């Protein structure tokens, strides 16, 4: 019964419902226009395959496997990149203002700072929020117990390139030469490329919040299981764009 419920759920909710409609349309068109029926079948199969965990893992894994967390990270500063702001309301905890991505990174940054005792530079402005992401993340980390004097915020950046540019500038001003760069594992290849392109040569990548791996279940082959493939494809496009851009600059 549990398995049946999960299968029905996958095909009742979007994007599974779109797959069902396209299959139904293909069946209706089969005697009217063979080309139209085949086109509907092709689109249905693409939607199905493209929204499974299996596909998401396949495109995400090369990004996440680019760097492994060092056993004994050494540096002068931890630089954490933010990944969004939730905002709104009057939250009980500062964590409620953070997007899932920022919260995941902040949790790892907290443990890394606790283990190393290093200062923590949080980078993230307010491109789509009233409060800078870095300030919201700093409030949460302070709430957890990180001393305020151990936290530096960079609140002007709007994207990864500006994260790198402004964070490197702050590190130079404060005399930090060896950076431990912390961000989501899938985001790390693009972040490392930009930090190095903009002058951060002594850089230790530190991946957080891996999404791939683990045991396979039947749910992983159903549509709508995961839409994280979009995150991975965005990283591939962003990395290609910056590599091409910096190649000629």
Give an overview in words.
The protein has 249 residues and is α/β, with parallel strands linked by helices. The chain has 2 domains: 2-63 and 220-241, no CATH class; 70-213, Rossmann fold (3-Layer(aba) Sandwich), CATH 3.40.50.620. It has 9 helices and 5 strands; from the N terminus they run H-H-H-H-E-H-E-H-E-H-E-H-E-H. The protein has helices at residues 2-12, 16-29, 34-50, 53-64, 100-116, 133-144, 160-174, 188-197, 229-247; strands at residues 77-81, 120-123, 151-154, 179-184, 203-208. It has a 5-stranded parallel sheet with strand order 3-2-1-4-5, sandwiched between helices. Helix 2 packs antiparallel against helix 3.
Please describe the topology of this protein.
Layout: H1 2-12, H2 16-29, H3 34-50, H4 53-64, E1 77-81, H5 100-116, E2 120-123, H6 133-144, E3 151-154, H7 160-174, E4 179-184, H8 188-197, E5 203-208, H9 229-247
Parallel strand pairs: 1-2, 1-4, 2-3, 4-5
> What is the CATH topology descriptor of the largest domain?
Rossmann fold
* Low-confidence runs: none
Instruction: Give me the number of helical elements.
Output: 9
Task: Give the name of the CATH superfamily of the largest domain.
Answer: HUPs
CATH class of the largest domain: Alpha Beta
Could you say what the CATH architecture of the largest domain is? 3-Layer(aba) Sandwich
Instruction: Give the helix/strand class.
Output: alpha/beta
């Amino acid at each position: 019964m549990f398995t049946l419920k999960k299968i029905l759920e996958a095909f009742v909710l979007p994007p599974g419902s779109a797959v069902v409609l396209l299959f139904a349309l293909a069946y209706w068109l089969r005697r009217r226009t063979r080309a139209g029926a085949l086109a509907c079948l092709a689109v249905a199969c693409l939607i199905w395959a493209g929204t499974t965990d299996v596909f998401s893992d396949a495109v995400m894994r090369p990004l996440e496997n680019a760097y492994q967390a060092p056993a004994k990270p050494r540096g002068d500063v931890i630089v954490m990149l933010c990944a969004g702001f939730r905002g709104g309301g009057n939250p009980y905890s500062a964590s409620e203002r953070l997007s899932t991505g920022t919260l995941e990174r902040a949790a790892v940054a907290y443990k890394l700072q606790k283990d190393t005792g290093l200062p923590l530079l949080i980078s993230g402005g307010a491109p789509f929020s009233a409060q800078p992401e870095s300030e919201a993340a700093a409030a949460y980390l302070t709430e957890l117990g990180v001393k305020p004097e151990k936290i530096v915020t960079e609140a002007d950046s709007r994207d990864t390139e500006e994260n790198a540019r402004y964070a490197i500038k702050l590190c130079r001003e404060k005399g930090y030469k060896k950076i431990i760069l912390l961000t989501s594992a899938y985001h790390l290849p693009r972040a490392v490329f930009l930090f190095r392109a903009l002058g951060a040569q002594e850089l230790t990548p530190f991946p957080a919040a891996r999404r791939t791996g683990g045991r396979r279940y039947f749910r992983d082959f159903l549509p709508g299981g995961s839409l994280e493939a979009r995150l991975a494809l965005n990283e591939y496009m962003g990395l290609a764009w910056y590599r091409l851009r910096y190649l000629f600059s």
